[in-house]
Batch of 2 targets.
Target 1
Amino acid sequence: MSTGLAFSYESRAQRVVFGAGTARTDLAAEIERLGCARVLVVAAHAERELAEELTSVLPVVATFLDVRQHVPLETATAARALAGTSGADSVLSIGGGSTTGTAKAIAMTTGLPIIAVPTTYAGSEATAVWGLTDAGRKSTGTDPAVLPRTVIYDPELTLSLPADLTVASGLNAMAHCVDSLWAPNANPMSSAMAVAGIRGLRQALPEVRRDGSNLDARAAALSAAYLAAVAFTTAGSGLHHKICHVLGGTYDLPHAPTHAVVLPYVAAFNVSSAPSAAALLADALGVPDPVSGLVELYASLGAPGSLRELGLSSDDLPEAARLVAEAAPASNPRPVGRDDAALILRHAWAGDRPGSDQLEAHR
Ligand code: NAD
């Protein structure tokens, strides 16, 4: 008797070291373990001091500091050139998703192994997804060569994240979980990780928001963000990610706050057409209605509320809707035409209270 359940699933090999203080105690041994002896450090200017402190005893041959959000092609070209001239045999990224993304751009063309030390909840370190922006268009793709070989998750490094970035980045991780419930390659393993990630984030983020110095809550949020990223890299980019790629790549909106704002509107749009995903989401959030559950969590976190406040002009909405409709996955549980994309974007731009009724009513 057939159940109709069918899927393909590819796990990805990566070593993960998790624990408070590990960036200080384990980095040298992890680099040696990979047999590397010429390290190119990638860190944003803001993380320069931290990078210098963590790498003071490492065999560093060069440092690339000119990290830019969404990895413009010029940034990738400059970083790759430094990798070549320095004779590096490995790339060590210390920072948020933009820094990891720059290391990935190097690995894409050089094949150098990456050791990633993340300092936000972005999750790029656990995915084989790269992103590059050229002439206002962000492209993403999957390449096993860009998956960091080793990740050192040290929650102490997240203690310095300010409250607004903590919330936005944590909700970026939440978006990885939720979108992977209906993404093109969603499967029972990715959904299990997504559900565990949603539970972890739902519990940890309010604690971290209340007290950013709570190291246990920071660790819980970081491990949930790791689960979120693994769910995302196996399930692929769903509608939510496609919308955020357009908004980030074409309109240069800030990555994590954009993900935070858009998520409840995509959930409101999709849940009525995705009952199994909706049930998993409601259960993981511990509420009867998943969209209301997200709205309540957002209110408790003081999350960013609208694309307007992130700087998107209303004049850009029609073109953004066209780009979103082009990029939307054909497998999305509810078809996404230009009017649908416009509807989601209009509500997210205005910061209306997200609700499935509201998104239905305007159809
Ligand atoms: P980011 O890396 O741009 O960092 C945001 C800001 O936070 C920067 O100013 C940075 O200096 C600062 N910062 C980082 N860590 C800090 C800390 N511990 N304390 C204080 N300040 C800190 O932002 P992000 O949200 O981490 O990453 C966004 C980027 O990552 C985007 O380009 C996005 O496309 C990419 N990304 C890629 C994937 C993937 O799978 N490829 C997944 C998620 C995000």
Target 2
Amino acid sequence: MLIYKKVSDISPYLASCREKGQSIGFVPTMGALHAGHISLISRSKEVNDLTVCSIFVNPTQFNNREDFEKYPKTIGSDIDQLEKSGCDIVFLPSENEIYPADMGINHYDLGYLETVLEGKYRPGHFQGVCQVVDRLLDIVNPDNLYLGRKDYQQCMVIKKLVEIAGFGTHIEICDTIREKDGLAMSSRNARLNPEERIQALAIFRTLTRLRQGLHPGNLASLLADAVKELESQGFRVDYVALADARNLEILDHWDGQTPVVALVAAFIGAVRLIDNDSIFP
Ligand code: AMP
């Protein structure tokens, strides 16, 4: 497995691979890798000649200083897992490599997507996501990009970025990998203490109840019960929402036909967790 730290080394290397006709799959991450990340690497390996994984904790997508500072860092274990997974190339850039002083800051017109759910509760977050993904796609220039459905809205944002910026990259969205008890794997789970880890299960329970309780008509009481369930487990809820799975338009009322995704964001202690489930069809 090759490890690169400099844009001036990885970019020409990947360009030479491309010239030889090798296809490139790319998995961008912020490290503290778990089986969810590795599932993306495995999928990339099935389809591409070369798989590149980047690890970069992107400061511009954190709207909360403490969240950035406490973001778990496990680089030794990350490299071990990537080696075992058969990943071909790891890119570990410094902040200067991603954001050199002479590079301007782009603004991306994400429209409605930036005004709801994560966009609303984490102002500026998706601009940061677009800045880093734009830069990484420029550096790696992959044929295929692998993203986790766990970050449902982020997948939609990155699809829009690829469209706006005119990258030729194909995007594949991969299923959320969960712990045996249903908790979605997340690097932030490492910050939960044993009691919080048990309380965190309420998120998956809530998504299950939303799936079971979904019915045509007004959704207010179903949603209010879901918030109550989370609060009773000690969560501070940012949102519990049912939305049109195609465009994230928020549903107060369901017609029995529209595809529905349930989305949750809530704090347990200082740790903010998100999860979602496509509950209809
Ligand atoms: P992160 O390191 O959290 O920025 O995530 C890097 C990539 O891994 C993103 O595309 C995430 O959506 C994806 N990912 C994170 N957690 C999971 C999971 N539990 N299952 C599948 N993909 C995931």
